[in-house]
Each structure stands twice: as structure tokens, then as C-alpha cells.
Amino acid sequence: MTSATRPIKVLVAKPGLDGHDVGAKILCRFLMDAGMEVIYTGLRRSATQIARAAVDEGVDAVALSILSGAHRTLSEKVVAELEKSGGGACVIVGGNIPARDVEGLKEVGVARAFATGSQPDEVIEYLNRTVQR
Predict the structure, then answer these.
(1) Is the pLDDT of residue 4 over 70?
(2) Which of 13, 43, 99, 133 could anchor a disulfide with 50, C-beta 3.0 to 4.6 Å?
(3) Domain containing 83 — which CATH number?
(4) Is the pLDDT of residue 122 over 70?
(5) 30 within 8 A of 120, measured Cβ to Cβ
(6) Domain span at residue 53?
(7) In whole numbers, what is the pLDDT of the chain averaged over residues?
(8) Measured between alpha carbons, how far is 43 from 25 in angstroms, rounded to an integer?
(9) Which residues share a beta bridge with 90?
(10) CB-side exposure of 76: number of CA atoms within 13 Å?
(11) H helix or E strand, kind and range, residue 103
């Protein structure tokens, strides 16, 4: 496959101590069903582990699933680690994201935030529209 026809490659990660990953696993399934290549890192990953996996796998996007309320802090750390390690992936965040926090996430480098209740099709459409392969 040429780079123009290869599937979008997404790393789905659960940073921090949050142990709830049902939503992340459901998102993985929807992304795969949409023809994307998905790498799931599992629970309780550090920003460094996530960035390293993203760079090693050469992903186009990193999707963080955060339900703990620490979305800004954790997102900022992941974005910083990606920048430090040379990863150019688009970072999106989903989970318990209050509308008042969305602008702050953008300020730390998150491309898009998806609040609880967002539909998987919204994520798929966003990635198809914005990710540069």
C-alpha cells in the first residue's frame, strides 16, 4: 500500500490511574470496523509510555480515554512527551470532559475533545477528515 491508501493508524491509550476501559475498548472496535489500524496500550500508562508507543508504531493519531477528571494534566503530559520524542500524531481526548475544559485542552495541544455521550461516528468522521497520512 502507498501512504495515500494506507489506513489511518490510531493508538488508543488510558493514561493515569483510571481503571475503566470499556469505552476505550468499544472505540477500538468502532475504529477497526471503520478500516483503521488500532493499537490499544491497556490501562494505567504513563505519558512517556504512550508517547514511546506512538512513535514506535508510527501512528497518525493518539486517542486518550480519560474518565478520572485529570484530562488537562494528563493530556498536557502526553502532548509534551510526544513533542519531546518527535511524534507528530494528532491527539484527541474522550471521556468525562466538561464543556468548560475544552478550550484548556486545546491550549495544551489537544486537537479535539469528545465528551461522554459522543458517538463513535463523530470520532471516525473527525479522524477521516483531519488526519494527515
Answers:
(1) no
(2) 13
(3) 3.40.50.280
(4) yes
(5) yes
(6) 9-118
(7) 94
(8) 11
(9) 61
(10) 11
(11) helix 102-107
